[in-house]
Amino acid sequence: MDSMGIDMQILSYTAMALPVIPPAEAVALMREVNDRLAAAIQAHPDRFAGFATLPLTDPEAAARELERTVSKLGFKGAMINGRVGGLFLDDPRFRPVLEAAEALEVPIYLHPAPPPEPVIAACYAGLPPNVTTVFATAGWGWHLETGIHALHLILSGVFDRHPRLQMILGHWGEMIPFYLARINQTLTPAAAHLQRPVADYFLEHFYVTPSGLFTLPPFLLTLQIVGADRILYSVDYPYVQDRQARAFLEQAPLSPADREKIAHGNAERLLKLNPSA
Amino acid sequence: MDSMGIDMQILSYTAMALPVIPPAEAVALMREVNDRLAAAIQAHPDRFAGFATLPLTDPEAAARELERTVSKLGFKGAMINGRVGGLFLDDPRFRPVLEAAEALEVPIYLHPAPPPEPVIAACYAGLPPNVTTVFATAGWGWHLETGIHALHLILSGVFDRHPRLQMILGHWGEMIPFYLARINQTLTPAAAHLQRPVADYFLEHFYVTPSGLFTLPPFLLTLQIVGADRILYSVDYPYVQDRQARAFLEQAPLSPADREKIAHGNAERLLKLNPSA
Predict the structure, then answer these.
(1) From A104, A240, B59, B78, which residue has the greatest number of CB atoms within 10 Å?
(2) MF terms per GO, please (chains A, B) (predicted)?
(3) Mutation site for A-interface testing, chosen from B87, B88, B131 by largest number of A Cβ within 10 Å
(4) Same domain, yes or no, for B252 and B216?
(5) Based on the domain organization, do B179 and B122 belong to the same domain?
(6) What's the total number of domains in chain B?
(7) A85 in contact with chain B, both atoms CB, cutoff 8 A
(8) What crossing angle do the helices spanning A176-190 and A198-205 adopt, rounded to 10°?
(9) Which residues in chain A have Cβ-Cβ distances shorter than 8 Å to B177?
């Protein structure tokens, strides 16, 4: 692996619109998914690592599957594709999953998913159907939905209940860095039930990745807001090619030490990757 | 008025959650509102200018009221507080209003409003009620809603039909500048019915104001995306005091010429203000 460290790929299964799989099927299916992922990693352990896919319709089983995949298969965390049956992860039924992630000291990557149907109908309809589809997902709606989800976790007190839980957000933080000062100013006085200012939770419980968004302005803003210790480089292969992603980071206006942190140091620390692998 | 030009105040009536006023009442009521605003301006014409409030439930009357207020009362444009009865301004029934703004060469300021009830229920509920209220409005939801509205106008082809129409967005562009590259990359291929790349419409039909958000990272990002010719300084008085707003602009890392454009030059050009007033 090269000195930039960006050759290590974190594998996971993501879905554009994940169906809600009944618990009776989900537990066995996700176990098979994770075992296949583990087999792919074992064939190239110096190249790949994995995030678990969890049967979230059965939260107790999801917690056990996270523990199995981390302790037995060496997975580095879990990737969760948005809401489960319309519920955010701060719903009390998901507490076992958050407790397991906290106890195992592995992060949860909150991947975008489309907003719920009533939101699509109210906000994204009235345009050519293919425009609505992209507008509600990768073009805009994914990011609003995922930013709402992350802020909902903060505002519901998840990080007061789980003070060591760490999350990862893609796409330069799903819009939150752009408005973090505004969010903090307006929501901290309203959220008197929280122990700390709203911005503190974002700055201390979230890591941010580019997810293939390689233009300087959002990168520089994110760096100004979250700092070089909280950015994990990511390529979004195969949508973006490694060469393009590497050139962006090499040319970004960063000190050598910050470039190394973003390229691999932060990921090695958070995901407990073996830097000599 | 001082050399910064930020003493000129643009007056308008805004509402947190504007009720839909039936046409029979709206036309007379908005006329009275605008006449009172004109009287306040006439008492201090060197200090104040105005945006019209329009009876949008009767679009033909709204177009006539915009023409009356601009040509007879010297108003500088219109302020529209989000959707009208759930409809975005690209709905065909509002075409007379957009045509009037274009013909009169005055901008429409698209002010935030709360998202529709189904969106609040799906995205912002499940928290203490006062947290939901702020989360759905000034803390986050306003800006998503207004960004969606602006993008809906672009994607529906409003600016192909009205090539000279100019809009104003507050809050550093309601999130759009942070993701403009992403929006352009994903939505331009989908929106094959449009004449031009999606980003072009934003860059050539929208001006952006701070609305009292005075931290450097979103300002610098907005400057990098829209440029110094498209930023209009605004204070959001009385929520922010003039002294604080002035200090931010004086200390911002800008060339003298760009500082003058942002402080007053762009507004004087767009709103046809008399710089000697």
Answers:
(1) B78
(2) carboxy-lyase activity; hydrolase activity
(3) B131
(4) yes
(5) yes
(6) 2
(7) no
(8) 140
(9) 178, 217
Read off the pLDDT of residues B209-241 as tens digits, 9 standing for 90 and up: 999 999 999 999 999 999 999 999 999 888 888
- Contact between B139 and A225 using a beta-carbon 8 Å cutoff: no
pLDDT along chain A (277 residues), means of 10: 48 58 90 97 94 96 98 98 95 98 98 96 97 97 98 98 98 98 98 98 98 96 98 91 93 97 97 74
3-state DSSP assignment of residue B166:
coil
Contact map slice: A 146-185 vs B, CB within 8 A: 147-148, 151-152, 155-156, 171-172, 175, 177-179, 181-183
Q: How far is B68 from chain A (nearest CA, A)?
A: 32
Comparing C-alpha atoms, which of A108, A213, A103, A93 is closest to residue A162?
A103
- Name which of B155, B156, B221 is nearest A178 (Cβ-Cβ): B221
Whether residue B166 is contained in a domain is answered as yes
**Residue A191 domain flag:** yes
How many other CB atoms are found less than 10 A from the CB of residue A19? 6
Retrieve residue B192's tokens: 């094959």
Q: Is residue A277 part of a domain?
A: no
Inside any domain, residue A4: no
Domain shared by B147 and B178, yes or no: yes
Q: Is the pLDDT of residue B63 over 90?
A: yes
d(C-alpha A76, C-alpha A78), whole Å: 7
